[in-house]
Specification:
The chain is about 40% helix and about 20% strand. The protein has about 475 residues and is α/β, with parallel strands linked by helices. The protein is globular, with a radius of gyration of 23 Å. About 35% of the residues are buried.
């Protein structure tokens, strides 16, 4: 899919929107999301259509189309109506600003199914559509939608010195260095100004982009003979995820980085180039590694992957292990120390803690996947076929946590994993899922094994009062 440009330099630099995609926007009261989009697409709307589908009159310069939610007899009627709007405008941006009213009237599961159908309808077409939803109002629907869609935006605000300050964060539909990073913004005369390099602006300094791209091109040409070295521990301004990645890559050969992060190696090279430009890191020449085509798995491994787990484990010579609860408590304490000691200025302590825990487990999942393939005498650069995904998931959970699971393929590139006897959330009560160690491990391990972006999110958890822990795995 082609990249979609909003004509806002800073936002386009931060984000990575694609034509034919649907994006969720969360805010506090179903107001800031529309104001944000009004300003973001103010220039774009001068050349191409932007339409707001709404249940009531809203403050916008864009064309409004009224959705009379109370008169909708079936979601099929709504879907047909929306498709007519798409056909009429032909291209551009469609903003769905009626979800709260719709969800009060209609079954959430059916609305989700309708949105999944829309994803297929607009795939590859010159549209980007936004779903505006007030955060926390429909928690199960919101969490599932975050997983089903390619990414989402989160708009928040806080008050200091009697003034309100607004931030936005982009998740997944962006370069990894911007994933989850909060960007302060202001709207001045319907112009969106984003704080970038200590200045509220809508323009990117050309010199920075050019400098980073020059360094990235150099890294691409010399991947097989360079390693990354951290030269400055002053990481002020780095988000937790980026700080952890920086420390993990220290002294690592770029070829090993490519093996560990095959599906996002290009964005990581750009990140390394940015660190070099800031003086945080450097590259040094090291042993040159000849890059050969990855070797296919041998017959024994291929047979083992087709067998039930107990036979596969015999072939692979592995035994399951149980992760002690003390280890999980220790992980959380370690993350708390990292955030408080090295990144004391990070806002949103709880969310940062969860994201950091999850990213640590993603790294662990990737490293473990590489090590297990190597121990089996195989090449970790080889790309698994997707038909083995259920087997890899069940083996990962059994070997890593001594957990058994049920895996169902929901649809193309989407799987549901159910764990009845999950011990990770025993004795815990929470209003959101807490088994980050599983979702993080599977996200990292599967992405490395299949060399594609695969995300695992927990959508049900015993800590929330559910009978079992349920995870949704999706390949993007």
């Amino acid at each position: 899919m082609q990249r979609f440009k909003t004509k806002h330099e800073v936002f386009d630099y931060i984000s990575n929107l694609r034509e034919g995609s649907i994006v969720l926007i969360l805010d506090e009261g179903h107001y800031d999301s529309l104001m944000f989009l009004n300003a973001l697409f103010s220039e774009y709307a001068k050349e191409k259509p932007v339409v707001v589908l709404t249940a009531y009159d809203v403050l916008t310069n864009f064309k409004q189309v009224k959705i009379e939610v109370g008169r909708i007899k079936s979601l099929s009627d709504l879907s047909i109506f929306v498709n007519r709007v798409r056909n009429k405008v032909g291209q551009g941006v469609i903003i769905h600003h009626y979800l709260p009213q719709l969800l009060v009237q209609q079954n959430e599961a059916l609305v989700l199914r309708m949105i999944e159908h829309w994803l297929d309808q607009i795939h590859g077409k010159p549209f980007v559509e936004f779903l505006n939803l007030p955060r926390g109002t429909f928690p199960t629907f919101e969490k599932t939608l975050q997983v089903l869609l390619p990414g989402y935006l989160d708009i928040s605000y806080f008050k200091t010195n009697e003034r309100y300050h607004r931030n936005f964060a982009v998740y997944r539909i962006c370069d990894m260095k911007f994933h989850g990073v909060e960007f302060p913004y202001i709207i001045d005369k319907n112009k969106l100004l984003i704080k970038f390099e200590d200045e509220f602006t809508d323009k990117i300094p050309v010199s920075e982009k050019e400098k980073i791209m020059i360094k990235k091109n150099f890294l691409e040409r010399n991947v097989n003979r360079l390693k990354i070295v951290v030269k400055d521990v002053n990481v002020k301004g780095l988000p937790p995820r980026e700080y952890l990645l920086l420390t993990q890559l220290h002294n690592m050969h770029l070829m090993d980085v490519k093996t560990l992060f095959p599906e996002e190696f290009d964005s990581i090279l750009e990140k390394i180039a940015g660190w070099i430009a800031k003086g945080i890191a450097k590259v040094e020449e090291t042993v040159e590694i000849e890059e050969k085509p990855p070797k296919k798995f041998n017959l024994i491994t291929r047979i083992g992957l087709k067998m039930p787990n107990w036979i596969a484990l015999y072939f692979l010579g592995k035994k399951p292990r149980l992760v002690p609860r003390e280890t999980l408590v220790g992980l959380r304490k370690t993350v708390q120390v990292i955030l408080s000691t090295y990144l004391p200025e990070v806002k949103g302590a709880t969310e940062s803690l969860e994201l950091t825990e999850r990213f640590i487990q993603e790294i662990v999942g990737r490293i473990t996947a590489v090590e297990r393939v190597k121990r089996a005498g195989e090449d970790p650069r080889f790309k698994f076929d997707l038909r083995y995904l259920p087997k890899i998931v069940s083996l990962t959970l059994y070997l890593g946590f001594n957990l058994k699971c049920k895996i169902e393929k929901k649809e193309e590139n989407t799987w549901i994993v159910t764990i009845k006897d999950c011990f990770l959330c025993e004795g815990i009560k929470s209003n959101k899922p807490v088994c980050h160690i599983i979702s993080g491990t599977l996200t990292g391990g599967l992405s490395q094994s299949f060399k594609e972006k695969i995300v695992c999110e927990e959508i049900k958890c015993k800590a929330m009062g559910d009978k079992e822990c349920v995870f949704l795995i999706k390949k993007y």
